[in-house]
Design brief:
9 helices, 443 residues, five-stranded antiparallel β-sheet, alpha+beta, 17% strand
């Protein structure tokens, strides 16, 4: 490589480093600046203009070639001066001419460099804005892809849970279909359409109750786990005592299982119906056997023995105007009769001094002030349970809004014994309640 070419290359590199732009781009901007500002914001001498014009001719056409140029007129002094100045440039290359034009314009016009810097900053700002926008677009695109992926995973999870829910519901429906079918046939004899609607309603209610029971069991497991972790810091002697108690409890349970007296009690199925008037009218037509009056402060217990060959018990009840407490218990004692009996217990009559504990003191319990039926009551004293058969709670006693809907339920026989259906009006000080009920069983 010749020294001249090497020098030209170095000059170009220096110019690019000086201005931070390509030489051709800077030359294009300098030409635009010269044409726009010459004679207006920039005033140059005649000789300086000749030099600048000659450099542009050299940069565009290379060294002058007189043979290719048209002859000048006699009075064309400016054209002759430009050609003479062009001739003085000799063999200067196009790149050198561009650089010379830029350097000369920079020396002659102090405003040229700020002009280039302003353009450069404007381009950098546009580039920065473009990069920010591209980064935002990329971020939005990644966020959109992430949302789509999360939505896809969520849909897959929902689909998987829906499949599991359907499998669980189908399994529960298969277990209860014949039980609910017998119940529906008694409610709507000779009407398959109404029977199907009722069966579907009962199966849906049973499914939701099963989920609630499962959730409650999981919460109890978590509480038991927390309690177990908290008790892990007890002393070794206490742990041994607990181990002994567990062994005794296990032996007792095995003994109970062998005698088949205390089988595992399954929860009851509970649901409601809206045909309140029709139900009470049907019960009234049945010779009034399903209508009882529960006095204020009283509790009525209906004893329903399990029947040989039966598999489950069904109950339905409703009241007039006001709610009433309701619960179901199971008495673990082989029944001696198959008759359904009704027992009324009054609070005052149950205060038997012979059954009161010697060390118990009277305590006064007051119901919520927002319930007009409640007042100050003296609770029963705990009595001896030694001579009584054991009881299992099937449905705890709670006040039911049975004056707005018919409350229904069913329970599979846990073994031989007697169901105790309790209608509790002990919270009411002056209102008596009329209860309409119906009890039957399935095989």
């Amino acid at each position: 490589m010749s020294n001249l070419a090497h020098t030209a290359k170095e000059a170009v590199e220096e110019n690019q480093m000086k201005w931070g732009m390509q030489l051709s781009e800077i030359y294009r901007l300098s030409l635009k600046f010269y044409k726009d500002k010459s004679g207006k914001a920039v005033h140059l001498s005649y000789e300086d203009n000749l030099k600048l014009v000659a450099l542009t001719l050299q940069a565009s056409h290379g060294p002058i070639n007189q043979q290719k140029l048209e002859p000048l007129g006699v009075f064309d002094v400016i054209g002759r001066d430009r050609r003479n100045q062009w001739t003085l440039l000799g063999d200067m290359t196009k790149l050198q001419s561009m650089e010379g034009f830029i350097d000369l314009l920079d020396r002659l016009c102090p405003s040229f460099k700020p002009y280039i810097e302003a353009i450069k900053q404007d381009r950098e700002e546009k580039k920065r804005i473009e990069e920010v926008e591209n980064a935002k677009k990329k971020e939005l695109m990644e966020a959109q892809q992430k949302r789509e992926e999360e939505q896809r995973l969520l849909e897959n999870e929902i689909h998987r849970e829906e499949i599991q829910r359907r499998k669980l519901q189908d399994a529960l429906n298969e277990q209860t279909f014949y039980q609910f079918k017998e119940y529906a046939e008694k409610q709507f004899p000779g009407n398959p359409d109404q029977q199907a609607v009722l069966i579907k309603q009962l199966q849906t209610e049973h499914y939701h109750q099963y989920l609630q029971q499962l959730q409650s069991q999981l919460q109890n497991v978590d509480l038991d786990l927390d309690a177990t972790l908290g008790e892990s810091k007890l002393s070794e002697s206490c742990s041994k005592e607990q181990e002994t108690c567990l062994v005794e409890e296990k032996d007792r349970c095995e003994s109970d299982n062998e005698s088949d007296e205390f089988a595992v009690v399954q929860p009851a199925n509970m649901w409601t119906r809206s045909d309140l008037k029709e139900f009470k009218l049907d019960v009234t037509k049945e010779n009034g056997q399903g209508v009882i009056r529960v006095g204020h402060g009283d509790t009525v217990t209906i004893r329903v023995p399990t029947l040989e060959g039966g598999s489950s018990l069904f109950w339905e009840f409703a009241t007039d105007s006001y709610d009433i407490g309701f619960g179901v218990y199971f008495e673990w004692k082989r029944p001696t009769t198959t008759e359904v009996t009704v027992h009324v217990s009054e609070t005052d009559d149950e205060l038997d001094e012979n059954e009161l504990g010697e060390n118990d003191e009277d305590e006064e319990i007051t119901c919520g002030t927002d319930d007009l039926e409640c007042g100050t009551q003296i609770p029963l004293k705990p009595s001896s349970m030694l001579d009584r058969p054991p009881l299992s709670i099937i449905v705890p006693v709670y006040r039911r809004e049975c004056h707005t809907d018919v409350y229904c339920g069913s329970h599979n026989y846990p073994g031989e014994g007697t169901y105790l259906l309790k209608f509790d009006n002990s919270f009411s000080l002056w209102r008596s309640k009329t209860v309409y009920y119906r009890i039957f069983y399935t095989r």
